Structure prediction request, 359 residues.
Amino acid sequence: MFENRNKRTELSGLGEFGLIRHLTKDIHIKNSSTLKGVGDDAAVLDYQGRKILVSTDLLIEGIHFDLTYTPLKHLGYKAAVVNFSDIAAMNAFPEQLTLSIAVSNRFSLEALDEIYSGIYLACERYGVDFIGGDTSSSVTGLMMSLTVLGAASKADITYRDTARIGNLVCVSGDLGGAYMGLLLLEREKKVFKADPLVRPDLEGYDYILQRQLKPEARVDIIRKLRDLRIKPTAMIDISDGLASEILHICTGSKTGCSLYEEKIPMDPATMQTSYEMGIDPTVSALNGGEDYELLFTIDMKDYEKIKDDPDLSVIGHITDQSGGMNLITRSGGQVPLKAQGWDAFFERREEKGERRKEK
Ligand code: ADP
Ligand code: MG
Prediction:
C-alpha cells in the first residue's frame, strides 16, 4: 500500500504553506464550473443558473474509521466517494470537493500523501475538481472534513420526501456486503490483538472487503436513469442500511411501503459470510449500511425500462401511510420495518414460527 514504506518526512519540516503547496501541486481543473480552485482566499465557481448542491462530512479517527485495518489511500478514496454519493442521491453529479484535515505528528508527509492519493484518484475517476481545504495540527488523531458541491437544473433535483402511492421501490447493485466486510475486519482485528503472530485470514473475502474499504458512488446509475429518461420520484443513498433509508423516504413522503424480502439483491459472497457470522443475510441488508447504493422510487410507467437491468432491482412498492412500512418475508409473513430492527425482526420471525433456512 505505502509507496515509500521506509521513508518518513516530518510534517514540521515543511511548514503549513510548503505542505499545502506539496499536496496541491498537481491539480488540473476539469469542470467549466470551476473558475478558481486552490490558491486564493476562496475558490470561485460559476454554475450558470443551475441550482447548487452542497454536502459535507466530518470523519474522526476512532469514530468513523479505524486505521488498524484501513489503508490510508482507501481512507481518502472512500471519504471522497461517500460524499460524491450524496450528490448522486440528489440526481446530480459531483463537481468540486474540499478537504480540511487535522493531523498529529504521528503522521508523516508520506502518510498524508497516501490519503491525498486516494482523494485525487476518486476526483480523477468521478471528474471532480479538488478546490481547497484547510490544514491544521491535532493533538493525537486524524480528522477530516469534506465538502462536495454539484449542480442540477431545478427540474432534475430529486428529494427524499416526494414518493407517491403506487410508485415502485428500486435499489441499485446489491446490499449488505460493506457491513460483512466490516465485521470480518473487526473479527480479524480481535484475533490480531489477542495474538499478533496470527496472520489475518482475509483470503477469499475480496468482494465484501472491497465493498467496505473501497465503495463507489453510483453516478453510473444517475447517468443510466437520465439515458432512460427516468426521473425518480424520490431518492436517497444507502449509507445506514435499507430499513433506515426507506423509512426516511416513507416518513418524508407521508406514505407506507411493502418491500419483499426475496427481492432484496444480495451477492452470494455477502450471504455466505452472513451465514458464517450467524447473521440473517436479510438483516445485513436491512441494517448493515455503508453500501452506498441508491434507493429510489419510480412511476409504474417506467417499469418496462428497467425491468431487465441486472444492476437495478424492484424490491417493493409505496403504499398508503395507514398500511405502515412492512417487509413481506419469504414465507409471506409481514414484519414492520424499523430503523435498527435487529431484535424486532428476529422476534417477529420466531413468533411466526419461521425458521432461518441456514440454521
Ligand atoms: P487561509 O489562511 O485564508 O485559510 P490557507 O493558507 O489555509 O488560507 O489556504 C490557502 C489555500 O490553500 C486555499 O486556497 C485553501 O483552499 C488551500 N488549502 C489549504 N489547506 C488545504 C488542504 N489541506 N488541501 C487542499 N487545499 C488546501
Ligand atoms: Mg486556512
About this structure: The mean pLDDT is 92. Residues 134 surround magnesium ion (ligand 2) (CB under 6 Å).
